[in-house]
Each structure stands twice: as structure tokens, then as C-alpha cells.
């Protein structure tokens, strides 16, 4: 009897143990399956974002071809290739005191720059920044410029009329207005459309500097708008002031754009325009570039469809700081829908733009052994308290895929410009690669947080530039960070286009 009881107990214990083992195995199998599903999402996006050097060269060619088309006729390409009427870049001989007004997304800055005609490496200047009240971003052009003119007046008067600026002497201002503008002359231009957060409807189609000038006159301020400048053009001016080998400028931050010096005779659409100058700066508005060679994913398609400007700024939506965080968010949302690796789905995953690009950079560049920063962002921003290390690693991978594609495409864009102007070591757009060609030192001025503050983005961009051009050519191409082209560079342009 006793033996029988012992046998029964032993059998039961074994059965429970087997059951528990089976549950554990089942749990592990399910976990592995879920993990695989998440990995599959990442693998797929990695394949779709592939930017081999062959593909990048196709993008280079497409950029150069579109540049030609945009220069040939108005509306000939998605690249607007806008004339700036800037023929003279500052060369260091400028003297005097000049002002700049730089209009940014949510604030504007006013600067006063003193030039001694000696090409000083350090440009003496004063700056003041002011927030634009939110309601003015959607108000009328009159209210908007009244506000700006009042602040400018305060700045000009507060800084005082020093001996150099006698009361009788008219002051001159460069106006940085980084939106698509059809320029009629260096100091006048009509707003084609707003981008970023602005929507002052009555300003579209108006001569923007004329609106500002009118407000200045009404405030009794004798300040002439001498140059209307895109931020890329200010960057080029500052780059050129310091280094006369500068041929192009790129802004790559929240949004992105490029400009470069073009031969006047290559700008077919402006033939007939009276000019004795051999070159002109062209504002490409490259954020709107599009080509079927761009590696587009379903995440890009959805982001575009849900944006306020679907089908516009396609290149910008793949490469600029405003969008990278949201592309990453869309990928992890998909991972969380397809698998349970994040546990319960957080409602935060569905909130557009909850992940900013600085957060992506912080996760991507987290070099702590247990990825502390990734865990912090997941917890604080996305409200996922506990995430295993291998999932955190997968997050880093997603950031890498999105950023790497962006940086490599930006590099292809830059080489596209170099190709158009015959500085890529090939014989230009029609010629083949010529190793015997003497390559000139070529400087591209560059500004923007994405490039300056995100080390890995910068490294990927440089790496791709070298891959596309090859070492022999790439060593002649220098990307030079300028500081405050949209402020100081614009004041320099006011000086080089001064009426004095
Ligand atoms: C604007 C460009 C500007 C760029 C960088 C884009 O959204 O259309 O004119 O240069 O942002 O600020």
C-alpha cells in the first residue's frame, strides 16, 4: 500500500515537472517567434533603405539631370532652381556696418556686423533674438512686418548710432527669408509658397522685401533692404568670404536645401536677362528633388500622405531632421503591431513626431554597455518601462538604418551638384570618368544641426562622399562648416550689394 502511494506521488511530481517544462518551452518558442517577427520588420526596412554605391550614383545622375531641367525652363523640374541675382559674393574688401534680419521658424534674429575691409577671420557683430508670437505665424503680412519692424527699430536705436554710422547715412540690411521665392532682383522677390510652420496667406504672391520696407518706413526707420537672401545663400557668402574656393552651400538641419554658383550662360531660363556677370548663385530648393532611384519605403509613403504638403519636399522628408525621428517611430510602431517585443502597445507609438531627431541621435550614439539612454527614452517618451537589452539593440539598429540612408542620400545630392558644375572628376554630365583630369580644390560650405551635432550622420555622409567619388577625387572636396551664414553671411551680402 505504502509503495503504491509513493509511486503515485512520484508520477504526479513528474507530470507537474513535465507540464512546467512544456509551458516554459512553449513560452520560449512563442517569445522566439515574436522576436523573429520584430527582426523581420527591421530586416525588411533595411533592405528597402539600401543605398549601395551603384544606387547612390544613380541618384547623383538624377540630381544633375534635374538641375539641367530646372535651369532650362520654369517648372521644368521639381527642382525649382531659383535665380537669386547674387553675382557678387563678398570678397573681404567690404567696409562699414551692416544689418541682417534672419527669420527662423519660431523666432527671428537681428544682427549688426562691422566690416573693416581686411577680410578679418573674426567678424565683429552683435545679435539679438526674439520669439515670434504664435498668432503672428498665421496673421496678415501687415501685422507680421509691423511687429518685425518695431523690434528692428528698437535694436537699431538701442545699439546706438556710433561714430561710423552717422544719422545722415542710410543703413543697409540683408534679409534672410528661407522659403521658396521668385526673385526679381537681389533685393526683391515674390513668395511662391510657405514651408515650415508659417501660413500668412496674404503674403503668398507678394514682394516680401517690399512689405518689410513699407513697415520700416512707417516706423520711421531709415534702413534699406539691400539683399533678400535664402539661408543657403548666406552660408555660401560666408563660406566664400573665408575661402574663395567655395562653390556651393548646403543647409541640413530641421529642413534642408542647397545653392551653388552657376555659369550665367548655363541658366537657359534667364537668357536675355541683362547681366555682364559670368555667374550667379542658384537656390536649388533641393528639398523638393525627386527621383525613382530614391529608396522609398512604405513608411515614407505614409509619412508623405499624412503630411500637410503631400508630394512636395520628397527629398527633404527622407533626409532632414524634421522627419527622421518620425520615420523611426513608424518603424517601431509596425514592430509593436507585428510582435509583442515591447509588451503592451503604448499609445505614444501612434503620436506623430513624438520622437525627435535629437532623441534618435541620443539612442544611436548611446555607447553605455546596457544602452541606458535608449532605455530612458523608451521609458520617458514612449512609456515602455522595461525593455530587454536585445530589444534596445534593435532600436539602435532602426536609428542607424534611417540615419545612414539620410546621410548617404545627402552625400549623393552634393556629388550631383559637383557633377553639374564639373567638379566630380568626371567630364561633366555627359562625359565619362577621367582620371587624368586635374581636379581643383572644391569647397562646399555646410551648416545645420543635423550635420553639426549628429556625429554618426556626419561620418556616414563623408564615407558615402568618398565611396561615390573615389579617394583620388574626394581628397580635393572639402566640406567646411560655417557659423551663422544665415546671419553674418546675409549681412556680408548686404555689404556686397550695398548702394554706397
Ligand atoms: C526652404 C528653403 C530653406 C530650407 C532650409 C526649406 O524648407 O524651402 O528655402 O533653405 O528649408 O532652411
TrEMBL record:
This is Phosphotransferase. Pathway: Carbohydrate degradation; Carbohydrate metabolism; hexose metabolism. It is an enzyme of class 2 (transferase). Residues 42-241 form the Hexokinase N-terminal domain. Belongs to the hexokinase family. PROSITE patterns: HEXOKINASE_2, PROKAR_LIPOPROTEIN. The chain crosses the membrane at residues 6-27. InterPro entries: ATPase_NBD (IPR043129), Hexokinase (IPR001312), Hexokinase_C (IPR022673), Hexokinase_N (IPR022672). Its EC number is 2.7.1.-. The keyword Oxidoreductase does not apply. Keywords: ATP-binding, Glycolysis, Kinase, Membrane, Nucleotide-binding, Transferase, Transmembrane, Transmembrane helix. PANTHER family: HEXOKINASE, HEXOKINASE-4. Residues 248-495 form the Hexokinase C-terminal domain.
